[in-house]
Design a protein that fits this description.
- This protein is of the alpha+beta class.
- It folds into 3 domains: 54-210, no CATH class; 213-351, C8orf32 fold (Roll); 400-503, no CATH class.
- The protein is 38% helix and 17% strand.
- The protein has helices at 2-27, 29-42, 102-108, 129-133, 139-150, 164-177, 212-230, 236-250, 263-267, 274-287, 319-322, 336-339, 400-410, 422-436, 449-461, 463-476, and strands at residues 94-99, 155-156, 184-192, 198-205, 252-253, 271-272, 292-298, 302-310, 313-317, 332-334, 344-345, 440-448, 481-491, 494-503.
- Helix 9 (263-267) links the parallel strand 5 (252-253) and strand 6.
- The protein is globular.
- The termini are far apart.
């Protein structure tokens, strides 16, 4: 009898514990999500679907091109390859929520407005695949999130009834589709009812939002500097390769770079992590009219790369991992099978089209000249052109002054043409720019190595803008222009700076 009683009480304890768990989850949808996520991860389910393969809330798998094509590898990468060790840094979307009472929610209507609903916006489903994934019922929220982010609205009430889970899907879709929203942070907060229905959304913005007008100007200028070269090329494959190579020249991997989840960090700052590389590549390709998607997943650590559509087929591109010393094309235009040992998609990216066609956008054959990179922004002396002075007789003694004159002479530069100070350099730039006039122009200056180190910092901080750009704009009667810098080491402690200027 004692044994029967013990069994009875044990069963009742388990039942009560289960009921308590159900009650807690019912009262806290956020807790439910957290527990589900933990369980899903433990079962190695692809992010964006649960352990049973069910789609993410708000996703319409019936409308997804290639939904059945992506095959998750049997095993996940144990780590990144040694050649690209540490070159990751993608941060998944972070959401937080607060449950509120019905009366508090009703009071919000008199305080918080929907803001800009974006009802007049149209999104091309080819260029914005995460939008194409969404169910029709939640698409109005996508429009609203995008429009309010464009206006830097902080808080707003949803225009349609969505759950906490659906809100996360929609926010991630907007964030993944639109690299131009470089001021939008990777997290948000929401308020929801006991039922799980969301009643308020609060967006978060990074430091660029504090100077949004100038940040947008810098961003567009930096993008145009790359696009101007790519647009002159013929095929989409050539344009892709140009943008890919340009970013490798422009960007340096830096896990400590500010706003490193944004395209801004790569294009303007020149320093970023995988997320910045991928979002910059995505933006530039979008501007060229080439479908390019932001893909997230796991590559030993959380990682981001791209999927590009060329010639009707899809391929994977990882600009970050190609940007090594020396640069490679090891992760350029590859199939899912070729990526499978190192890259595994997670989150909504599992619903992106499969990459199955080999030889898409193939690299130029050996000996073929690649795309012209003379117009790259390059605020680092990477020596795109080497110059060497003629060798002297070993028995000849050359004084430092003679060496200086010899180096300058062979470079076709006189001492009077060397700008020794920042102010003299800016004055020379102004003079040469005025002489060049409007349009696509080029001029060059020669500076000692010691001055270049100072100028490099000035270009990085934007001090050059107030140093001579504003004055040059007045002189030319122009609204804006983009200056592209390339550095050539002349030898003997001198650099030649090539300026490609696009005035508009």
């Amino acid at each position: 009898m004692k044994i029967v009683k013990s069994i009875f009480f044990s069963v009742m304890a388990l039942v009560m514990a289960g009921c308590l768990g159900i009650l807690i989850c019912a009262l806290s949808p956020s807790l439910t999500n957290m527990l589900a996520e933990k369980v899903g991860n433990a079962q190695a389910a692809p992010g964006g679907a649960d352990a049973d393969g069910r789609p993410a809330p708000g996703v319409d798998t019936g409308r997804i091109e290639g939904q059945d094509g992506y095959e998750r590898p049997d095993s996940v990468p144990s780590g990144t390859p040694s050649s690209v060790s540490g070159k990751t840094g993608y941060k998944p979307v972070q959401e937080s929520g607060e449950q509120i009472a019905q009366n508090e929610a009703e009071n919000l209507s008199g305080i918080i407005a929907p803001g800009n609903t974006g009802s007049d916006l149209v999104f091309d489903e080819t260029l914005y695949p995460y939008y194409a994934m969404l169910e029709q019922t939640v698409r109005p929220l996508y429009h609203q999130v995008y429009a309010n982010a464009m206006n830097l609205t902080v808080s707003f009430t949803p225009v349609t009834n969505v759950s906490v889970e659906q809100l996360k899907t929609v926010f991630e879709a907007v964030y993944n589709d639109h690299p131009e929203l470089f001021w939008l942070d990777t997290g948000y907060t929401c308020k929801y009812l006991k039922s799980g229905s969301c009643v308020e959304v609060t967006l978060k913005y990074n430091d660029a939002a504090d100077h949004i007008d100038s940040a947008r100007q810098e961003f567009q200028g930096a993008a145009q500097a790359v696009l101007s070269g790519a647009q002159a090329l013929g095929s989409d494959g050539e344009k892709e390769r140009y943008v890919h190579d340009a970013l490798m020249q422009l960007v340096e991997y830096d896990s400590g770079a500010p706003m490193n989840q944004s395209a801004y960090s790569a294009l303007v700052g020149g320093r970023s992590v995988c997320a910045g590389y991928a979002r910059a590549f995505q933006y530039l390709m979008q501007c060229l009219g080439i479908p390019c998607y932001y893909c997230t997943g796991y590559a030993g650590e959380d990682h981001a790369w791209n999927i590009v559509k060329l010639d009707g087929s899809y391929c994977n591109v990882d600009v970050t991992w190609n940007d090594t010393d020396p640069a490679t094309y090891d992760y350029y235009n590859k199939t899912d099978r070729e990526f499978g040992s190192t890259h595994v998609r997670t989150g909504l990216s599992v619903y992106l089209p499969a990459c199955t066609s080999e030889g898409v956008g193939t690299l130029p054959s050996e000996g073929t000249q690649t795309s012209d990179l003379d117009g790259l922004i390059n605020p680092n002396p990477v020596e795109p052109i080497r110059w060497q002075s003629k060798s002297k007789n070993e028995n000849t003694v050359i004084t430092p002054d003679e060496q200086k004159k010899d180096n300058l002479q062979q470079a076709g530069v006189t001492e009077d043409q060397v700008r020794e100070t920042v102010s003299a350099y800016y004055e020379d730039c102004l003079k040469l720019l005025k002489q060049a006039g409007k349009g696509d122009k080029q001029f060059s200056n020669v500076v000692p190595e010691s001055l270049w180190l100072t100028l490099e910092q000035a270009y990085g901080r934007g001090d050059y803008w107030k140093g001579y750009v504003n004055e040059a704009l007045k002189a030319l009667g122009a609204e804006d222009f983009v200056i592209q810098i390339q550095v050539q080491r002349l030898g003997g402690g001198y650099y030649r700076l090539y300026h490609n200027v696009y005035t508009y």
